[in-house]
Amino acid sequence: MLGKLDWSAIPFDQPIPLIAGAVVLVGILAVLAWVVVKGHLPYLWHEWITSVDHKRIGVMYILLASVMLLRGGSDAIMMRIQQAVAYQSQGYLPPEHYNQIFSAHGTIMIFFVAMPFVIGLMNLIVPLQLGVRDVAFPTLNSVGFWLTATGALLVNLSLVIGEFARTGWLAFPPLSELSYSPGVGVDYYAWSLQISGVGTLVAGINLVTTVLKLRTKGMNYLRMPMFCWTTLASNLLIVAAFPILTATLAMLLLDRYLGFHFFTNEAGGNVMMFMNLIWAWGHPEVYILVLPAFGIFSEVVSTFSGKALFGYRSMVLATMAICVISFMVWLHHFFTMGAGPDVNAIFGIASMIIAIPTGVKIYNWLFTMYGGRIRFATPMLWSIGFMVTFIIGGLTGVLVAVPPADFMLHNSMFLVAHFHNVIIGGVLFGAFAGFEYWFPKAFGFRLDERWGKLAFWFTFFGFYVTFIPLYVAGMLGMTRRMQHYDVAAWRPWMLVAAVGMAVLTIGVICQIMQIVVSIRNREALRDRTGDPWDGRSLEWATSSPPPVFNFAFNPDVRGEDAYWDMKAHAKQQSHEHDAPEYHDIEMPRNSPTGFVCAFFATIMGFALIWHIWWMVVLGGIGAFATFVVFAWRDHDEYVIPAEEVAAIDRVNLAERRDLVSMAGTV
Amino acid sequence: MSDQTHMLAGHDLAPGDEEQHSVGARILGYVVGLALALLLTATSFFIAGTDLVWQPSIPVALIVLAIAQMGVHLVFFLHITTGPDNTNNVLALAFGLLVVFLVVGGTVWIMSHLNANMPPMDQIMPMRR
Question: Quick one: which of A481, A458, A647, A462 has its CA closest to A549?
Fold first, then answer.
């Protein structure tokens, strides 16, 4: 009846996950109870859960990423403490638990923190920057978000029901095959990634179509803000690379469920094929994450230097070059598997070549700052911190791209330090820069600068104190994923790294404090103009938060830095618009399709993990029925009458007129 | 190209959304496509079993017919054209082909080297002797 599921699935003998699970459960129930008692449930349902508004979905993506960042961060703290204490002892985490923690940490940080954070920012901002009213497929957008949330839910469910994979974040066979991992851990891993992978793929298709098909009048390709370009490149990579992940995991699942032999040791299976395929997805994935971050830095650096982006066309070219070359380097993740010198040499050279367009970008940002009037607001601090940190990470990356050096450093702590150096220094700093930069746009009030700067400095130095010692430990021969060790020379570095982790934790607390303080002071921090940073692109041309239709009129773009031009033009003519004539606006109706679909997907995923076949059928039929109901809907749009549009827009225009008349210099 | 990239509806269309042809012309297009596809399929089956041609040329002929089949599908059913309204679709197709070429070609190349250098233990042992 319940497949493999029984009471033994709940780890009563392990206090840590049980207590953590209980605390989270109580927290969720408390929030739910508060929502119901206060009567916010209808609001939550109508305005957020069923929303197909790209801004709301973007905010929910970022919320999911932030919550999962805390989960993945807790894993990181536990690992750092374990390695600090587990010198010539077992530490406090038994091996089977420690192995689950490093696997969950990697899986969560990549798939449920970095991915939703960048997709959330793209969702929130790209339609605004393009001057359009929504993404190409609004309901599909909602489906994509809720399927990602399903994946995150399943991963967290594994904390208390069953176990998570003990295989590392990419579940290499033969360890992940049934003979070596008979439990449900790998199944939790694979099904949550399959389901959230569908979500990521539809988000990718949606954003590619949005950038290619929905641009406002005059917004041709070479007038698009840099963030739109990097969004295009990143989502092209999603569309091209995620099917490889899905196919690879599907083959692993066939091995585990139906006795196939794709990646087994025996019966003609080839383990090496898994490494090859997973990294053919895995390397483009790195650029899927970091390209949007590059776009964010381009926007931030240009805005806070008060200058147009230096070398816009070379930046576009570099972005698209990275997009293509990222598919030519994947072997550098397994130089040591034995492909031989000629294959290794080609991929080593390709890996070094990809550093060139990245270097072009760094110089472009530096030259954008050169001669500019730089304002050191929090987003700008994250951007400068990124440039310093990412260059170090990039240089160690070029070092491990040299095959002989890689043979020394493969799977050592040096590698761990390197990829944290680029992912934290690149993607996470970028996500935080974007968060600080666009928060006023999303919510209509600015974030507290004092707490924001504290958060930056603690995170920045905490990062170095944590990860520079790992470089050293790697040089001293320490391998990754060690539950305990007996080498005295490594111990001091692990202790320093634990101190660094404490500093990073203070940074996280400051970040939370920043949000709390800002929400409490929101009236004082209110942004009435919609343009708190003196911005350059179209998202600042509408109010904060933007109305549901984004723009009363589709803006007419006449050059790069569209909004900057409009402002300069308006100042010269000392007025903005004559009274315009408003029209009705059609917007897509909200739809519970995404939420209902993900509800059934959760049931199906859980049933697949535990081999509850009747429930798999139930979930599958439910998800398909949801799709059928949506496909046969009668009314998919509603009309916002012209008077309402006019009323909303007049407020915005009045505020803006004050801004223009108050502003002194350009 | 820049003029084509303006968002003005009607300039840049998705496959299947192309400008209004009469129903008769569209049906004719599909019928021609179907006939060509059937012809190519039938030829493939015929070539595979025949002894009328030089035997080693059969695989090459099948590959050529398969590529022609893909071309027929792209032109008649997916409506890829060389017109200016189709730039996005053609570029997307090119990018897709490039990625498939890189991944499949690279995989074959990598795996052949890996299999040569890293055979299973029971195949290494005889080699050592």
Answer: A647
